[in-house]
Fold each of these.
Amino acid sequence: MSVRLLIDMNLSPDWVLFLQQHGWDAIHWVTVGDPHAEDSVLMDWARQNGCVVFTHDLDFGTALALTHAAGPSVIQLRGQEVFPDQVGSTLISALTQHRDALAAGALMVIDVKKCRVRLLPL
């Protein structure tokens, strides 16, 4: 199953090239939507376009929990390390391990030491 990642505004566009170099399909929100759009707009776009949202914003997980939505999948990056050279290998490992869950609908929370996955709806 293919997983396409939509990178939120709060993460560097450098993630796109990093992910592509590791075989993942990725786009940054700034290339497809309004940089000042509400999170709900980004979530709707991701759902309509079959993307997994990759973010450093905790609001996305909260929105999934409050709405009991079945998608889109969200990957939340926790902690202060938010650049590919800091946590890129952790993300690639988590993506590889949990590809099927993300394709089905999941909330993945990643920090430098661990990864937690919960299937949607929450």
Amino acid sequence: MAKKEVSAAAEKVAQAEKEAKKAGKQTHSEGNIFQRAGKAIKKFFKDLRGEVKKIVWPDAKTVLKSSGVVLVVVVICGVVIFGIDELLSFLLSLLKRAAEHISQSTAAEETTTAGLMSAVSRFFTL
């Protein structure tokens, strides 16, 4: 089947080259801007048609295989990104808990120190 596709592609390329040679033989006469633009547009569409003839479309089996590969890769990338996101979220929550723990222990020390200082000052003011 691959040989058939290659030969079909070769035939299309040969056909497009023949058409390109025919188009190249035409003489381009000077004219006003509208005539030149019209010829350029006509040449563009002829070239476009020749290029479209060179296209070899894949069969349904190849399209399904390629689509399956793309879907698998997308799922794998999604799982990897999800895992990285969850890991970073977990690390951030650990950091947040550690910061809260440090701030609570510092506040408790300040409360204890302030209470002790007020008790000492009351003792000495008596």
Amino acid sequence: MNLPNKLSIIRVCCIPLLVLLMYLQPAWCRWAALAVFLFASWTDYLDGHIARKHQIITDFGKFIDPVADKLLVLSAMIMLVHAGLMPAWVVILIMARELAVDGLRLIAVTNGKVIAAGPAGKLKTASQMLFIIVLLVFNIPAVSHWLTLILMIWIILITVYSGVDYFLKNRALLAEK
């Protein structure tokens, strides 16, 4: 297994610790959760950078990277809902988009194709990660502070846009043969 794929696996392995730290109440746990999330988010950047730089892009990497991102982001967001920092309906919208895109990827795989993350999907993930970081740092509900509210509206818009973008760019997969 190459280094970028190992970094994606490390990202997945960070999730249980992140969830535990976000669940526990002491303030130091929130800061530790932030450190774990920042590290895991950094591995997302690093694995893509290394894969492109050294041209070691694999089908497994195209699969595991977005899955690791989704697991990390959705786990953190679910814990933010649990903490009362994020409305559940936003996470449901994001999960619906992720499941729809994964369904499209499944159709692609049955046709011998792999759909890698596109620019809109990468921007979506980066925006969601930034949103999580802001909520962990400021510990202010997303609907009660202008910065978190603006970021929440942004992630809703970019999430919907990137989902529509994936389907438009891959609509031929959905056409009956």
Amino acid sequence: MNNEVLVHFMADNPMVDEFIRHLQHCLEDSNSIPDFKERENRQWQLESALQEALIFKNRYNELVQRGIDPLRMIEPKQKDPAPPMPTKSEALMVGTNHCKKCNAHLESDIDFCPACGKKL
């Protein structure tokens, strides 16, 4: 993927920096949670999410600088086991969308199978 395509793609979607600012704002707002345990749990969740976002951003930038497409899909190996079928609760919550290649559960907001990578 060349940089022009990547910039165009990323311009249409929220950037990692915006997500990090959102998490920082939520962390600041969490100080107003009256219950100590609830506040502590929420702050732990937000701090963990911030760390993961920063790790992702740094790794993504490192791969781009090295000329590697960080969004490329990796083909599954033939000996890899098939992903598990969705549970009844998953099927009830989101309908009956399943990949025609591997039968994995599909999210409605993406155009590929998260289990096998097949484009829809």
